[in-house]
Each structure stands twice: as structure tokens, then as C-alpha cells.
Amino acid sequence: MALLKFRRDQETPANGAVTAFLEGFSIEVMPRTAAKIDDFRPLLPQGTRVYIAHIEGTPIEDMIETAKRLRAEGFEPMPHFPARLIRDAAELNDWVTRYKGEADVQQALLLGGGVKTPAGDFDNSMQLVETGAFNGFARLHVAGHPEGNRDIDPAGGDRVVMDALKFKQDFANRTDADMAIVTQFAFEAGPIIAWADRLAAEGISMPIHIGVAGPAKLQTLLKFAISCGVGPSLKVLQKRAKDVTKLLLPFEPNELVAELAAHKAANPAFGIEHVHFFPLGGITANATWIAEKTKG
């Protein structure tokens, strides 16, 4: 697969704040997208955390094989455990046992799962936490939504989402679980900063791994943003779509990352700890963009 070539006028100048902000980034794959990569080692730093998205209809065998492959290549696999796709505690425990035994999985992302009708007993990630199935895991991550989530709060607002995060924070406080919040992607720094500050004010101190959409065609980003329920920051893409001179150029998260990096540099206690990339335009393109922004 050819590496993406970047236009000079699209680049954000490399700087220390951006390099520091991208340190320890993670990236997300699906079994079918991972299968298109012959070898992840030339693309990602060794030890990179690679989330494995579990989409409805994906066989657990494909998930485990992807985790095994990533572990063998020197990466840290973090599979999704979508509550609404898991039938019962027996199936959950089977998945956990197989992931640990076959791929030495030590980290997990627990989330609702997006589908409207649960496959069985579980409806939300809090129920997964309470089963005890993940006792002994090195890390547990949970989902965050800087622009709200209509699936959880259908009437708008964020009361249910906030209550859920407070529950998870309480769990982190009373156990030895190493927990963090990984978020849906957004396209505007200001609302993300305000959301992170609000979490801190509400007593939610779990580190935030902020979701960022990697370089992609504008049409691709618009499609995924709408299907994933991205909120007001969608206007950033819509504004870009009106500029016919930019329609054929890949949209890159230069401005978003630079603004968040500058804010983190000026406010070291700011709650965002790492960046999590959604490689919507391809894993290779995303990895190339990161390398361009972090090279000396």
C-alpha cells in the first residue's frame, strides 16, 4: 500500500508541544482492516496500544486471531467488549478466557456497543464491570462522548452519560483498576476542552484519551461522523465541504491536534493524557501522518 504524500501547505509545523501530545498514542483497527496490513511493525512504534473494534457480526475467532497477531508483532492489543453483543456471563467469561489464554490480552475497552437491541443479559458497560470478569486486567477503558450521546441520553444533554462516568470513577477509586476514558472523535478543540474541564469539576479524574479522526477524504469523514453521532463539531467538516478547492484534498486533524497540544502544554494538569486515532482514511495514511508530525 502506497504511503500518503502530504502537500506542504497542509502540514502543521513539527513542534515540541505536538510531539509531546502524540507521545503514547493509540490506534483502532478492525479484523478486516488489520488483515490489509502485511506487517504493523514498520508503521507503529513497538508497544503501541491497538484497540480492536468488535462490530456486530464479527466472529469472536476473528477478534482473537487479530489480537494474537498484534501481540506477536510486539503491540498491546485492547479488544472491545460491547455489552449489547454479549449474550450472558458465560459468553463474556469465555471471551475473556480465550483472549487471555490465546493472545495474552491484559487490557480491554468496555462499552455499550451501539446496537439498539441487546443480544442478551447486558445493556451497558457498567454491568460488564460488575461481573468481576475483568479482575486482574492491567487496564480497563470506558467510553466518553465530548458532544453527548443520543443513544444514552435520547432527549439531549448528558445527565445519564455523566452519571455513568461517575459510577465508573467510583469503581476506579475503590479498586486497583487502572482506568481511562477513550472518546468518540470530534473536530473542534474548544468544546473538547470545555468537556474535559467539566469532568474535572464533577470529580471525574480518570485520564482522557481523546479520539481523533485520522486523515481521510472529506466524504468519508462526513459519512462516519454522521453515522457515529458526532455533534456540533460536524460543522467544521460542513464548512470545509463548501470550499470546492479543498474537496479533493484529504482532511487532516492538524488544527485540532495543534490546539489541544498547545492547551496541554500551557496546562499540564489538563485531563487529556493521550490521543486515540480512528484511521478512517486507512491505517497506513494515519501512521504516516503521525510520523510526519513527530519527526525531529
Task: Explain what the structure shows.
The protein has 296 residues and is an alpha/beta fold. The protein has one domain (8-294): TIM Barrel, CATH 3.20.20. It contains 11 helices and 8 strands. It has helices at 16-22, 31-34, 60-72, 89-103, 125-130, 159-174, 189-201, 218-227, 234-241, 254-266, 283-294, and strands at residues 26-29, 49-52, 76-82, 107-111, 139-144, 179-185, 208-213, 272-278. It has an 8-stranded parallel beta barrel with strand order 1-2-3-4-5-6-7-8. Strand 1 (26-29), helix 2 and strand 2 form a beta-alpha-beta unit. Helix 1 crosses helix 10. The two termini are 25 Å apart. Keywords: Oxidoreductase. This is 5,10-methylenetetrahydrofolate reductase. It comes from Rhodobacter xanthinilyticus. GO terms for molecular function: oxidoreductase activity.
CATH class wording? Alpha Beta
- Total separate domains: 1
Measured between the Cα atoms of the first and last residue, the distance is 25 Å
CATH fold annotation: TIM Barrel
Q: What is the typical, i.e. mean, pLDDT?
A: 89
| Largest sheet composition | 8 strands, parallel, barrel
> Looking across the biggest beta sheet, what order are the strands in?
1-2-3-4-5-6-7-8
| Reported CATH architecture | Alpha-Beta Barrel
Gyration radius (Cα, Å) is 19 Å
Q: How many helices does DSSP assign?
A: 11
Strand content: 15-25%
Low-pLDDT segments: 1-14
Compressed to H and E, one letter per element, the order equals HEHEHEHEHEHEHEHHHEH
- What proportion of the residues is helical, as a percent range? 25-40%
Which secondary-structure class do the elements indicate?
alpha/beta
Number of beta strands = 8
Shape: globular
InterPro entries: FAD-linked_oxidoreductase-like (IPR029041)
Protein name: 5,10-methylenetetrahydrofolate reductase
Keywords: Oxidoreductase
GO molecular function: oxidoreductase activity
